[in-house]
Design a protein that fits this description.
Strand order of the largest sheet: 3-14-15-16-4-17-25-18
CATH topology of the domain at 333-555: Dipeptide-binding Protein, domain 3
Largest sheet: 8 strands, mixed
Shape: globular
Strand content: 15-25%
Radius of gyration: 24 Å
CATH architecture of the domain at 333-555: Roll
Structural class: alpha+beta
CATH superfamily of the domain at 333-555: Dipeptide-binding Protein, Domain 3
Length: 603
């Protein structure tokens, strides 16, 4: 099971991306069920026939991936997969089903977030700062070109007017995925490369911070011509953008991009891709994906490929397969997998029963079993590793749970549980989740809790969770975040009907006191670490005392790469290339994946 964060490109909407990212309530970056059709015919994007125009790149003969009908030079092409389950239909960064690379290769954000170093990286913005409690000022980089994919020509320059337009669109359009992030913005003005944002009281600092590294900057010259209803739905097959690549071609098998000769970061940051083309392919079945990685058809995979641990690093000498870590957990953490129970139903509404479940489970067995060492057991609070500085160690020591069948039986006896059979729902087609649920059910049985595992189609599963027709599921709603706010907002959001509509609080936890603290945290400046620390400490104590969710493991940001044609992949080994190796929505374009791509070099 893989995740992309709920409130960044993969989630959000408050579930912003329902496709290869957050699928409603159960998030998964890749559905490994769509087979790539071999020999798919390529459709040239509008305007591509103008080969020879400024910056355009003609097709050349060479080896191609078998799913592509047109050949590209193999030593100039990076093949990626594990990021999309459906063929490309949209390159609109406001479209929740836009294809891999729309944000990150084409469109860009004001800042990037580096989860490994837990810091913000200026991107289209050279700086951003608060000039008062309710005024934020953005200064843009000079000399950023808007470039047409169809011709490769620079046709304009990014200005504050583009940022102002993008912000105003998000403010006005509820269909904009970042509409809620700008809910406290009152007005926006621009002068040259300077943008000034004024907020009304109370200022929602947490959501604004999310906007800065998640939302694309749009070309006002293009989007201002669209009808309001088209802003988030136009397919945008001939994009004009600022990013490192241009859309080259599309087919049922995926999309190819070519180098943007006018990319601003070449001069401003000394960055350049060593490949001329990047083709992101629709995800194959897991077994086929591993075979393609081994035979060199794929260079970079963000798909869950079980068995890759036997091929990576020292254990796989001669295979040339790289993972981010050379040993367990091999992958950086992407999201927290919870055991979620419907707290409105008996016996799950009893906190002693929930404690019994927490003490009965050994997620380490799942990490080593179904996930073959590629996931890490979660801490008791469930906060991801990049948020470790926020973890209240005293609360964990006092209230935290651990694997203890004897304590599980003790709390179970207090709970009033009488042996009734419970149902553990899992989505059909996700073998890793099925095996994990079966293993957890056996652990629960050992302490006297009767659980049967049932598979259901994804749509039916979402419906059951939304309607409260479930006992237990494995849910992974919250992924990458720069602060703990999103995590606790997802757990405690009230009122429950509105929370469910937004995809939050699907466990139905009613704790008005905790929700008030979450709201207070959202309205506290990020610079006020003392106040935020106290708020998040209190929320962690409440979480551990009430156990609205039971953290199990951190799902992996699946990444494995072949060194047959390219090297210099992201790695924990050296400090110079510790970038995010993930092209999922919410990562590519929002984190440091673009820096990882620029670090690659020909073998």
């Amino acid at each position: 099971m893989g995740i992309v964060p709920k409130r960044n490109g993969a989630g959000g909407l408050r579930s912003r991306w329902p496709g290869p990212g957050r699928l409603g309530l159960l998030a998964r970056p890749v559905l490994a069920v769509a087979l790539v059709a071999c020999g798919a015919a390529w459709a040239v994007v509008p305007g591509e026939a103008s080969a020879g125009a400024a910056g355009s790149v003609p097709r050349q003969a060479g080896d191609a991936h078998p799913s592509l009908g047109a050949a590209l030079p193999r030593d100039e092409t990076l093949y990626t997969t594990g990021n999309a389950s459906l063929a490309p239909r949209s390159f609109n960064p406001l479209d929740r089903s836009s294809y891999t690379g729309t944000l990150g290769l084409l469109y860009e954000t004001l800042f990037l977030y580096d989860p490994i170093s837990n810091k913000m990286v200026p991107w289209l913005a050279s700086s951003g700062s608060w000039s008062g409690p309710s005024t934020y000022t953005i200064e843009l980089r000079p000399g950023v070109d808007w470039v047409e994919s169809s011709s490769g020509a620079a046709v304009g320059t990014l200005s504050g007017a583009d940022v102002m337009f993008s912000l105003r669109l998000a403010m006005a359009d509820k269909a904009d995925p970042w509409h809620e992030d700008v809910g406290s913005v009152q007005s926006v003005s621009a002068s040259g490369d300077l943008v000034t944002v004024h907020f009304g009281a109370p200022v929602n600092y947490a959501e604004w911070h999310d906007y800065l590294w998640h939302a694309p900057v749009l070309p006002a010259a293009v989007w201002s011509k669209l009808h309001a209803a088209q802003a988030a739905t136009a397919t945008n097959l001939s994009p004009m953008a600022t990013g490192p690549m241009l859309l080259y071609s599309t087919s049922s098998g995926g999309a190819c991009y070519r180098d943007n000769p006018h990319w601003w970061a070449k001069n401003a940051l000394g960055l350049a891709f060593k490949f001329n083309y990047l083709c992101d392919l629709v995800s194959p079945a897991s077994g086929k994906g591993l075979a393609e990685l081994l035979d060199g058809s794929i260079d970079w995979s963000n798909q869950l490929l079980r068995g890759v641990t036997n091929l990576a690093a020292s254990r796989g000498a001669g295979y040339g397969i790289k993972t981010y870590y050379s040993g367990p957990p091999y992958m950086i953490s992407a999201a927290t997998a919870w055991l979620e129970m419907d707290l409105a139903r008996s016996p799950m509404n009893n906190v002693d029963f929930r404690r019994a479940v927490a003490y009965a489970l050994d997620p380490g067995a799942v990490a080593q079993g179904p996930y073959t060492g590629t996931v890490e057991v979660a801490g008791a609070t469930g906060l991801l590793p990049e948020l470790s500085s926020w973890v209240d160690a005293r609360a964990v020591k006092k209230l935290g749970f651990y694997f203890s069948p004897s304590l599980a039986k003790k709390y179970l006896a207090r709970s009033g549980y009488r042996g009734q059979s419970l149902v553990f729902l899992v989505p059909q087609g996700q073998v890793d989740l099925l095996e994990a649920a079966q293993l957890l059910a056996k652990q629960l049985a050992k302490v006297g809790i009767s659980v049967s595992v049932h598979s259901a189609p994804e749509a039916a599963l979402r419906k059951d969770i939304n309607s409260g027709n479930f006992d237990m599921v494995i849910n992974s709603q919250v992924g990458l975040s720069a602060t703990p706010w999103q995590y606790f907002e997802t757990v405690y959001r009230l009122p429950i009907p509105a929370a469910l509509a937004a995809g939050d609080n699907t466990e139905r936890m009613s704790d008005p006191g905790a929700w008030a603290l979450v709201q207070q945290a959202a309205r506290t400046p990020l610079t006020d670490s003392a106040t935020l620390g106290r708020l998040y400490d209190t929320l962690q104590s409440d979480f551990l005392d009430q156990l609205p969710e039971i953290p199990l493991w951190y799902t992996g940001a699946w990444f494995q790469a072949s060194t047959r044609y390219w090297q210099g992949y992201p790695s924990s080994i050296t400090s110079s290339d510790r970038y995010t190796p993930v092209m999922w929505p919410g990562w590519l374009g929002s984190t440091t994946t673009v820096l990882a791509l620029a670090h690659l070099r020909r073998r």
